[in-house]
Structure formats: C-alpha cells, structure tokens
Amino acid sequence: MSINGRLLLDENNLLSPLSWACSYGYGLFETILVQMGRPLFLKQHLQRMAESADALGLFMPAKEVLNNWIEELLIEATLRTGRLKISLLGDKKAAGEDKLQTNTLLILQEGIIYQADLYELGVEIGLLGLSKNEQSHLVRHKTLNYMENILAREQANGQGWFEGLFVNSQQRVCEGTISNIFIVKDGIIKTPGPREGLLSGVTRQLIIDLAQDNLLPCVETKIYPGELIGGEELFITNSLMGVMPVTKFAGTPIGKGVPGRVTSSIRKIYQELLDKEIQA
C-alpha cells in the first residue's frame, strides 16, 4: 500500500484519529479491477472521483500524480490480478482554504475476485427491506460512509442471496448493495436512471455505451419491483465482477433459470472491451 505516494510495509500511523475521515466518514473511494498488472478503466474511475471530490469540497491530487503513485505501487507489488482501492481521506481544513485537506491511500489486494461457475450458472438476488433517499446529495457519490450498504449486504447474505436490491422513497428499484441492476424485457435492456437514487457505476455506464454501440436497445427508466420477476433476463454489474447473470430472484427462476441470450451477448462484448483495455 501507499499513502501520499509513500510506500508502506505496515498499517501503523496511517491516519490521525482526529481526521474527518475517522470522525465522520468524510472521504471517497474507488475500487478498480487489476488484470495483467493493469488497473482497468482507471481514467473513468479517476474522473468520477474528481467530480465527487469537487462536489464535496475534497482536495484531490492531480491525475498525473495519482497515476505515478499507482504505477510505483504496482511495480513494487508485482501484482498481476486483483483489485486496487483508491481512498481520499478527509483530514482537516486549513484556514483560508476552500477544500478539505486529504490523504490519498492506495491499497492493492491480490487474487481472483469471482469464480467462473458464478457466471456459468448465474446468481440469486432479492429485494431488501431497506430504501435509499434519491434526494440525498450523497447518494451519487462513493463516500467512505458505507455502513448502510454493509448492513444491507449482511441482510442479503443472511437470506442466502448473492446480492440485495434497494428501493427508493417511491418504492422503485434503484441499485444493489455493491452493484447496478439491469433487466431485459421484450428485447430491451432497462436500468434505473441516475435520478432514482443510485451511484452510477463505471461499469454501468460502459454497458450502456456498449449496448448503444452494438445496436442493442438500452434505456434508463423507472423500474418497479414487480417487473424484476417478470423480466426475461436480469444481470448486475460492478467494476470487479463485470457482468454477472442473475438466474433467480428470491427463490423464483428468471426466464429459463439460466443466463439469457442478451446477457451472454453483453458479457461477450464487455470482455472484448476488457481485453482491449488490458492491451492498451
């Protein structure tokens, strides 16, 4: 790991307990897939973090500086497959400054994240008894204050589900605890729009763009819980899992109970994009 570009061998003396990050969860993070020693779609992740940092008044190092720190860490760690977590940790606000001072923490973790059989068989998800406030200023940002999602994920795991979905205050589906949701109905790919109360994932946007580029109808719209069981296909996305087929919703099979044709097509073209990103 590294903090502010300084490589560290242990976890001692990383952060003051008086910092805003420790005291209030004031900060941001991004989690990025690493394959063949390359952090994939790093540009998109840093752009989202920069936009959130600007909106929340956090200082963020220049992207060129961050890129150098990340490259140094990857070389030192010799990691080939795993994940990179970038955290902007709110520290304190100096007199006369508009933005909160931050420490930048980079952590690399090695290993394959999701096993192949999950993609072949699909996973089960369900609806949580929890809601997101789509009017919240924070819902669109990946903040350090992630306790709501962690508790919700524990609820989903307690049901035996791979993932759980939130609804918003209007009882419409918005997002999962760690993912964005897509439904396929009558050949059209649908996903909740950004005003529904969700974090617009990097992979979510890539899938929308890929669908449009490949002439696959894809719309951002309102989705009600009842539509999920009636969908021909479901899949969820995030940067580590990519495109994960959903074949069961709270015990009810989706479609034929196997990954569907559209989902398989999306997975294929997304993998092609990953391969290009690795070779870039």
What does the model show?
Strands 7, 8, 9, 10, 11, 12, 13, 14 and 15 form a nine-stranded mixed beta sheet that branches. This protein has a six-stranded antiparallel beta sheet with strand order 2-1-6-5-3-4. The chain has two domains: 2-110, D-amino Acid Aminotransferase, Chain A, domain 1; 116-279, D-amino Acid Aminotransferase, subunit A, domain 2 (D-amino Acid Aminotransferase, Chain A, domain 2), CATH 3.20.10. Strand 11, helix 6 and strand 12 (218-221) form a beta-alpha-beta unit. The chain is built from eight helices and 15 strands. With 280 residues, it is α+β, with helices and mostly antiparallel strands. The protein has helices spanning 20-24, 42-56, 63-77, 116-121, 147-158, 202-213, 225-230, 261-279, and strands spanning 2-3, 6-7, 27-35, 38-39, 82-90, 102-110, 123-132, 163-168, 173-176, 180-185, 188-192, 218-221, 233-238, 242-249, 252-253. The protein starts with a strand and ends with a helix.
